[in-house]
Amino acid sequence: MGKVPSGILQEARRQHIPVILLAGAIEDAGILNAAGFRGVFSITPSPASLEQAMQPEFAQENIRRTVEQICRIFF
């Protein structure tokens, strides 16, 4: 797990705030759940080249789509 997600999770724990992780690719969601993330979601729905995944429009659409699906769980 990277420094940023780890730091966010640590601070959220102190404040008793659940955290959902969005990532480009996820190797082992179980490890991330065990670390304390309430949910772990990949924003990349299908295989993509690194070049494609780094394009802002591609990333924004994938984030939008993933967040929409997460919101459907709660609302």
From TrEMBL:
One of its GO terms (molecular function) is glycerate kinase activity. GO terms for biological process: organic acid phosphorylation. Transmembrane segments: none annotated. It comes from the Bacteria. Pfam families: Gly_kinase (PF02595). Gene3D superfamilies: Glycerate kinase, domain 1 (3.40.50.10350). Coiled coil: none annotated. This is Glycerate kinase. It comes from Bacteroides uniformis. The lineage of its organism: Bacteria, Pseudomonadati, Bacteroidota, Bacteroidia, Bacteroidales.
